[in-house]
Amino acid sequence: MKICHALLAAVLSLNMTAALAQDAHAHAPGHDGRAVLELTPGERAMILEEMRMFLAGVQKMTGAFGKQDMPAVAEAARGMGQKMVHEVPPELRAKLPMEFRQQGFSVHRDFDQIALDADSMKDVSYSLNQLSATLQKCVACHATYQIQTPALNTMH
Ligand code: HEC
Predict the structure, then answer these.
(1) Considering only CA atoms, which of 37, 39, 38, 35 is closest in space to residue 18?
(2) CA 76 to CA 145: how far, in whole Å?
(3) 92 in ligand 1 pocket by Cβ < 6 Å?
């Protein structure tokens, strides 16, 4: 525990990337300064597939907003909620920092809430504000992490 405290003290005044390095699975910054998640090609593919589902879902939502079709907004949002979460293999889970997983869960929870509110309030601008706040979490996570795989690293 002493070592942990010393580590904690050392990183307290540093930036977020440095702070993340105190995590049990150290995530050294990559060339662009973001923390690196070292994953296998299969694990990377799994995460990126989920990400593309997010982008596709957000695309559906914006189309529905354009038509002021709130049931369709709710449906697209719900598709990105908790029901999109599938079992994360334990080896992958062990490689993902706590903050990363929490941010991911929080985005899924947000979409469930957006779906509920879109159904009950049917208020385009309220829902758009919620979506914007959630997209801010996408932005924040992307600014913090990148994925690298040994296979890709040997290519350049
Ligand atoms: C908990 C962290 C996290 C959250 C939250 C998150 N992402 Fe990502 N996303 C990543 C990481 C890490 C990558 C890989 C980036 C890299 O290696 O440069 C990624 C990659 C992507 C990609 C590229 C997919 C590909 O095939 O290359 C898209 C698109 C994407 N995210 C969309 C989103 C959207 C939209 C949201 C929010 C609704 C979101 N992400 C939320 C971490 C996150």
Answers:
(1) 35
(2) 26
(3) no
C-alpha of residue 9 to centroid of ligand 1, in Å: 31
Q: Locate 30 and state its tokens.
A: 């990559």
Cα separation of 76 and 108, whole Å? 12
C-beta 26 within 6 A of ligand 1 = no
pLDDT in tens, 88-123: 899 999 999 999 999 999 999 999 999 999 999 999
Kindly indicate whether the domain formed by 2-153 is annotated with CATH number 3.30.310.
no
- Which pTM was predicted? 0.84
Cα of 93 vs centre of ligand 1, distance in Å, is 16
